[in-house]
Amino acid sequence: MRLRVAFGSLVAGLFVAAALVGAPRAPRSVADVVATYGEKTRAAYESRCREAGVPYPPEEVWLLAFKDERRLEVWGRGQKGPAFLKAYPFTAFSGTLGPKRREGDLQIPEGFYEVGHLNPNSSYHLSLFVTYPNATDVAHSKVPRKAMGGEIFIHGRAVTIGCIPLGDEAIEEVFTLVAQAGEGKRHVVIAPVDFRKRPGFRLEGEEPWVAKLYAELESTLRELSSGS
Fold it and tell me: Which of 73, 198, 204, 227 is the most exposed place for a label (fewest CB within 10 A)?
C-alpha cells in the first residue's frame, strides 16, 4: 500500500514539474516568425523605408557589420540605390580585429558574405547563417578547409564565440526583414572598422591579401553610402 502511494506521489510530482517547466516548444517555420513579428518589424521600418524611397519590405537587403564600433547597419535598395534604414549595437563581442583564421580562434570573419539559411529555432532565439568561409577565406587559409571553422551567425541573446549577437528584440526585426527579401539579395559585409569614418585603416604587419580586402571593403562601403 505504501509503495502504491509513493508511486502515485512520484507520478503526480512529475506532472507538476512538467507543468512548471512547460512542454517543449514546437518547431516553428520562417513563415511563423514573419507572422509573429511582422507588425513589429513594419512599425520599425516602414516609415524609414518611405522616407528613403525604399519599398517595404525591401527586396534587397545589406547587413553591414563593423567590429571595432560593434555596430550592425541595415540597408535596403530603393529607386535611387541603397539607403540606410536602421542600426543596432552588438550585445557581445569576441576576438580582435582581423580576419577569421581557424576554428576556435573566437574571430568574427571579415569580408563579403551572404545570408545562407535562416534558423527560426535557434538556441539564440533566431539566427541568420553567414556564408563563411568564402572563396577568399579559403584561398588564403593556412589550415585545411575542415579546420577553418564555420557556423557563423547573426543571432539574438548577448553571448558570442565568433558570431554577431544583437539581442532578442533586434534579431526579431532583422530576421523578419531579411526573411522577406529576395533570394540571393541578402548581403552581409563585415569590416574591422567603419572605413567611411576611418579611411585607409590598416592592421600593422597585415598580409597583402588582407590589405587588398580592406581596400575593397572601403570602396564598397563608400559606394553604398554615396547612394543614400
Answer: 204
* CA proximity to 184, closest of 116, 133, 100, 92: 116
**Which residues lie across from 164 on neighbouring strands?**
154
- CATH number reported for the structural domain that contains residue 136 in this entry: 2.40.440.10
- Calculate the CA 150 to chain-centre distance: 14
- Does some domain include residue 206? yes
What is the chain's Cα-based Rg? 22
Structure-derived torsion over alpha carbons of residues 177, 178, 181, 186, reported in degrees to the nearest 10: 150
The answer to the question of residue 48 being in a domain is: yes
Q: β-strands 61-66, 71-78: how paired?
A: antiparallel
Dihedral sign of CA atoms 65, 71, 76, 81 in order = negative
Q: Which domain holds residue 57?
A: 27-226
Residue 62 reports pLDDT greater than 50: yes
| 27 exposure class (CB count in 10 Å sphere: 0-12, 13-18, 19+) | exposed
Q: What is the pLDDT of residues 181-198, one digit of tens each?
A: 988 999 999 999 999 999
With respect to residue 19, please indicate whether it lies within any of the assigned structural domains: no
The reply to whether 12 falls in a domain is no
